Amino acid sequence: MEEFREKILKFLSLGESVQIVAPPGFGKSRFGRSLSGLLLDTNLLQTPDDLMIAVKSSPQQKIIIIDSLDRILNENYKPFFSYLKGLRDAHKYQLAYVFLTDKLINTQYLNILNDLYQLISEHVEHIPTLKEKEYDTFAFSPTKLQLKEITNLTGGIPALVKICMLAMRDKIPLEPEKNIKLKAQLEEMVSISFSEPAYSNSKLVTDYLKNRQTRQLTASEQRMLDLLLNHKNEIVNKEDICKEVYPDVKNYEGISDHSIDQLVHRLREKVKDKYEILTIRGRGIRLTATPS
Question: Where is the OmpR/PhoB-type domain (predicted)?
Fold first, then answer.
């Protein structure tokens, strides 16, 4: 991480701005604070006027850090963005901006950012994951095997590394339902950046996503899953499906094979990481565990 920080500081020393992309869990706010500039937290300064006043009243005119820029990308902030561009023009190569974002700011926001977009796209960098030697152990002495497990569970994502290290030190379970901090962190991560590629290397995240997808079933999908689980490895026929999945329907003849096929297709997609659902033509549906 220090190598990454030095790279960013080099850009800033040349008066060049940089967009730093980091989804939740990567500690972008902490990284922003480490750069020793004026930090504008858009979660605290919630109006354009608040942000403008903070800039004008600060003696810091070399590095200005805007945390969570993506939170304020709307028409109301256009005057503030114009002000930032004008300020930079007046102090060219003496003032640099750091734009901290969850996701890459691309040209779709050009009409809001206008000329400021040139500075936002001047340099684009992604906060890297941690290497094992960079882990903060919090007065814990993990074994090599534990370090390997932490890396496998977290993928080097800073927030997860911290939670795992403390959990191992304090002998707290690393299961979301039994670890409140872990569940809250995972929920924040997947809620904001559901398909973030950097999360794919963390077993904690991938497992949580699988379970989360399973939980988010419609009422009819849940009834279908419950029925199939109660008859696991057995073929469930259409009549039984109609009785259990559509309890309010009196005339089962009105339930088409196509409707059931569509329901099965949706359910299959949502639980494919845990279960295999097969359609046995002319006979019914069968659920089995997905081969590991």
Answer: 187-289
Are both 170 and 207 inside the same structural domain?
Answer: yes
Question: Which residue has tokens 């019914």?
Answer: 284
- Contact present, 226 and 62 (Cβ < 8 Å): no
Contact 250, 263 (CB under 8 A): no
Give the whole-angstrom CA distance, residue 259 versus residue 236: 16
Q: Which tokens go with 284?
A: 């019914």
Residues 6+ apart with CB under 8 A from 109: 73, 117
Question: Each residue of 241-291: pLDDT tens digit?
Answer: 998 888 888 777 778 888 888 899 888 888 887 889 999 888 899 998 766
Same domain, yes or no: 247 and 277: yes
The length of the chain is 292
Cα radius of gyration (the chain): 25
DSSP string, 111-158: HHHTTHHHHHTS-EEEPPPPPGGG---TT----HHHHHHHHHHHTT-H
**Number of domains present in the structure of the chain:** 3
Contacts 24+ apart (CB under 8 A), 223-227: 223/247, 224/263, 224/264, 224/267, 225/267, 225/271, 225/287
Q: What's 66's domain CATH number?
A: 3.40.50.300
Q: What CATH number has the domain bearing residue 260?
A: 1.10.10.10
Q: How far apart are CA 130 and CA 17, in angstroms?
A: 24
Write down the pTM of the prediction.
0.72
